[in-house]
Amino acid sequence: MTSLPPIEQFRSSTGARIYRIPVEAFPQFIAYCYLIFDAGPITLVDTGSGYGNSNEYLLAGIRAVHDDFGEPFQVGDIQRILITHGHIDHFGGVDFMVEQTGAQVGIHPIDRRVLTAYEERVIVATKDLRVYLERAGVKPELRGALMEMYGFSKKHVRSVPVDITLKTGTPLDGMRFFHTPGHCPGQVCILLGDVFLSADHVLSRTTPHQAPESITHYTGLGHYMESLAQVRLIGGVRVALGGHEDPIYDMYSRIEEIFASHRRKLERVLDIIRAADAPITISDMSKAMYPDKQGYEILMALEEVGAHVEYLYEHGEIAVRNLDEVEREDNPALRYGVE
Fold first, then answer.
1. Rounded distance, CA 48 to CA 243, Å?
2. How far is Cα 178 from Cα 180, in angstroms, rounded to an integer?
3. Cβ–Cβ < 8 Å for 126, 151
4. Potential cystine with 16: which of 12, 127, 188, 277 (Cβ 3.0-4.6 Å)?
5. How far is residue 324's CA from residue 315's CA, in Å, rounded to a whole number?
6. How far apart are CA 145 and CA 88, in angstroms?
7. pLDDT for res 153
8. Distance of CA 145 to the CA centre of its chain
9. CATH code of domain 8-127+151-260
10. Residues of the chain with pLDDT under 70
11. pTM attached to this predicted model
12. 262-338: what fold?
């Protein structure tokens, strides 16, 4: 098994003990799950992907909390599993962990059907992504390859019932939840005293991935920046613990860095559109902005650029320039120019 970072313990100002457990969600891609004591029943936040060795890493990490930190519990004592958002690297192991523990499962209502009707969500999301790639101007052969990559890790997951609803303004055993749509429709961050579980909303190094709302409602850069501004108003956070990367000991400065990053990306998209000889597709913008991406990263780049194009379009800074073609054909590529 791959060598992972060590498990770390954090203590909140409320007295909760929070263990940060790494798993290899996908090859060479680490996600963190959190085991919480003294905040109601023993609670697991996120479950890894369930793909490859992810479940084994999670069980080994939970056992290490007992063996190395002296917490007097067993895996079966976990009574609650909270999912921060409906991305597979955070919930893909939930059915496995429910089998191991019999725990109740909680998630925000907007992402609830990702867990309770997983097969439906995959079919609908796949269709919406295919339509988006057509409108982005991606060539048919690349579209097929990207769609195949999109579905590769989604076939091992099974639907599970949801018992607990996580909502802003409805605390649970000292945990406060903040709905932070943008990166994912039903993403929640969790505040435990002065410790903030920031999920994929605020990360230490990466500007969290964005996708356009034209693929999935409640994503999009506009929602994300509104959520980021909401989190900036939460006072007294000593450390933010994300779903990936390092602990953040100055969350507020990191938020400003993320805002600045998106402003630069918006300007870069505008520069690419201005420099084009003719109205340009999202696919062409993505190639100009991220020329070295390969494999699945091509899809991530297309979504990231599309989120910024959508934001600029919604704010009246760019316009669709091939309206005759859009009116005439079923789903042609959209070509953009500056206003």
1. 10
2. 6
3. yes
4. 12
5. 22
6. 20
7. 62
8. 23
9. 3.60.15.10
10. 1, 153-154
11. 0.96
12. Arc Repressor Mutant, subunit A (1.10.10)
